UniProtKB/TrEMBL annotation, chains A, B:
<comment type="similarity">
    <text>Belongs to the isocitrate and isopropylmalate dehydrogenases family. LeuB type 1 subfamily.</text>
</comment>
<dbReference type="Pfam" id="PF00180">
    <property type="entry name" value="Iso_dh"/>
</dbReference>
<keyword id="KW-0432">Leucine biosynthesis</keyword>
<feature type="binding site">
    <location>
        <position position="129"/>
    </location>
    <ligand>
        <name>substrate</name>
    </ligand>
</feature>
<keyword id="KW-0028">Amino-acid biosynthesis</keyword>
<feature type="binding site">
    <location>
        <position position="218"/>
    </location>
    <ligand>
        <name>substrate</name>
    </ligand>
</feature>
<dbReference type="InterPro" id="IPR004429">
    <property type="entry name" value="Isopropylmalate_DH"/>
</dbReference>
<keyword id="KW-0460">Magnesium</keyword>
<feature type="site" description="Important for catalysis">
    <location>
        <position position="186"/>
    </location>
</feature>
<feature type="binding site">
    <location>
        <position position="242"/>
    </location>
    <ligand>
        <name>Mg(2+)</name>
    </ligand>
</feature>
<dbReference type="GO" id="GO:0003862">
    <property type="term" value="F:3-isopropylmalate dehydrogenase activity"/>
</dbReference>
<protein>
    <recommendedName>
        <fullName>3-isopropylmalate dehydrogenase</fullName>
        <ecNumber>1.1.1.85</ecNumber>
    </recommendedName>
</protein>
<dbReference type="InterPro" id="IPR019818">
    <property type="entry name" value="IsoCit/isopropylmalate_DH_CS"/>
</dbReference>
<comment type="function">
    <text>Catalyzes the oxidation of 3-carboxy-2-hydroxy-4-methylpentanoate (3-isopropylmalate) to 3-carboxy-4-methyl-2-oxopentanoate. The product decarboxylates to 4-methyl-2 oxopentanoate.</text>
</comment>
<dbReference type="GO" id="GO:0051287">
    <property type="term" value="F:NAD binding"/>
</dbReference>
<keyword id="KW-0464">Manganese</keyword>
<dbReference type="GO" id="GO:0000287">
    <property type="term" value="F:magnesium ion binding"/>
</dbReference>
Amino acid sequence: MKIAVLAGDGIGPEVTREAVGVIERLAIPGLEMTDALVGGVAYKATGHPLPPETLEIARASDGILFGAVGDPDCDSLERHLRPEQAILGLRKALTLFANLRPAKVFAGLEGHSALRPEVAGAIDLVIVRELNGDVYFGEKGFRTAANGDREGYDVMSYSDSEVRRIAHVAFRTAMGRARRLCSVDKANVLETSQLWRDVVIEVAQEYPEVALEHMYVDNAAMQLVRAPGKFDVVLTGNLFGDILSDQASMCVGSIGLLASASLGERETAHGTFGLYEPIHGSAPDIAGKGLANPMATILSAAMLLRHSLGLAAEADRIEAAVAKTLADGILGGDLGGSAGTTEIGDAVLARL
Amino acid sequence: MKIAVLAGDGIGPEVTREAVGVIERLAIPGLEMTDALVGGVAYKATGHPLPPETLEIARASDGILFGAVGDPDCDSLERHLRPEQAILGLRKALTLFANLRPAKVFAGLEGHSALRPEVAGAIDLVIVRELNGDVYFGEKGFRTAANGDREGYDVMSYSDSEVRRIAHVAFRTAMGRARRLCSVDKANVLETSQLWRDVVIEVAQEYPEVALEHMYVDNAAMQLVRAPGKFDVVLTGNLFGDILSDQASMCVGSIGLLASASLGERETAHGTFGLYEPIHGSAPDIAGKGLANPMATILSAAMLLRHSLGLAAEADRIEAAVAKTLADGILGGDLGGSAGTTEIGDAVLARL
Ligand SMILES: CC(C)[C@H](C(=O)O)[C@@H](O)C(=O)O
Ligand SMILES: CC(C)[C@H](C(=O)O)[C@@H](O)C(=O)O
């Protein structure tokens, strides 16, 4: 069993270190962890944010533990050399098409949301975001109109098979939960969305127990504020998913606690190949100061054990230790507490 | 002075009736109001959601008072015949490129937001949304890939001149407020956004007093939940503006109270040509029941008088009467009250 550890930029290395420490403490027989460079740090060392060696190590693994990428030093580089291209490149090269982002308030932390506690406390949803298509990966560039006007353009598109593949993931996810699926699109304006909606309706025939609803993205952004507790599984494309999943995680209020899985098509010996990362970014402003909350990365490691390595019991142990740590009031600065990165990591270790 | 009244579908006619009543009560000399069909009701009567006569009446006016379009009966029509095409068609044909959506909590109504009252109470922002470009109006359609896979596509783009035009509106708006402008894009992924950002930076040179910041759209969706009070003016494109402006209005909590202006390039005798509409939709579920809150349409009428007819004093009178009505506790069902459409309209009339 192999885990590729891609710590990346900013607070990535410090939060990843704690998550690796937690996995090591479980002393899983036959488990190997291999570090590789990614993001701005990889660009600085090799001239590329996603060096071929890194891609090879990632590909040879059963699951990838990912920290964060993003480095203000790289903002003026050409697009293909920027740190963000590393995560986009991994998603595409490894066909990590299904991004799962659970959003749920940890018991006792309802008061940390900007939403009223009774609204935040009701949140228990999963966003299923397509990750390999949409305007992210279409043709893009600059062109000059006849009148000399410069123009930037990006082609948005989805194909039948791309929508079908992610729709099945979403319906299966709904089957394991409250069996309600809300598909979000902008079919009143976009043909990409019209195709999306048509295919989702087709796939729905195979899941008669799931109650399917369609919602325009502008309305979804409203409902995620007004009554986020009404959602169970939300299915959406790459761009809308980027926006709505960040919005949903902020509704929960504890962005330092939220993990994500990006699953591929390949089956590993005991699960599905995937990449696991905290939903927060590289936070350059607090990098290297020992202030970052490693919980989201530790929870991402638990997701990796569960989904890619089939180690559900070990994943449960980690999640229970995290819940216990929070219940004991050991909170990072993001939650108004004063515990630092290693203090939180050690507290989780002590409760494993 | 001419106002075109396009009441449209669903609750459109009943809320528009109250707003027209308020304008009539002001007995403005030389003011003419002309009704015209739009949306599903226009399609049913003429076979087109935006009949040529309607476009002519709109074009010949100084400002358009718009109710709402959207009718579930029309959902299965071809795209170009659906009610939504009427509002998109008006925006494009009349070059209504600048959508202004103020979001501010009315005194005493902080408790109606899903956000904590101290968070909601701090909201005082304007979203400036570009309305004539982006993926809304690019080439779009369906195509079949070599392998037979159906695909839907929509081209997103912005040109230098389109961005420049809306950026000036946003900077001027910021100059009249707290002089802070946040431009929202997704420049880490989209070339359309890269051009957007480059042009906004250029235009900023002409407004040295305005503090300009750039934010990715996913982060903006988070900050609008976490700390919406930090925004002053938000500038963004058509698609992101659709999502964020609805999100912001729901943060305020009283969607039945929010008006919007869509301004064009043409100057009228006393202002700028524009279309004014409540941000809520046609709400078919409560249409015809006398339950809809007409406040947002009445406030849209006030914006029309101010921006297109130069009647600032009259606009102030309407806004004061609305504030007084709310302060007197006359609230519609959307705010947990029991006042119906005509009762609210009459209450505003009584306080004019
Ligand atoms: C870094 C960026 C390219 C990325 C995205 O837009 O997908 C991020 O926002 C995310 O959601 O993982
Ligand atoms: C009805 C629809 C086409 C429209 C839009 O997306 O612009 C609406 O949502 C709006 O914001 O005015």
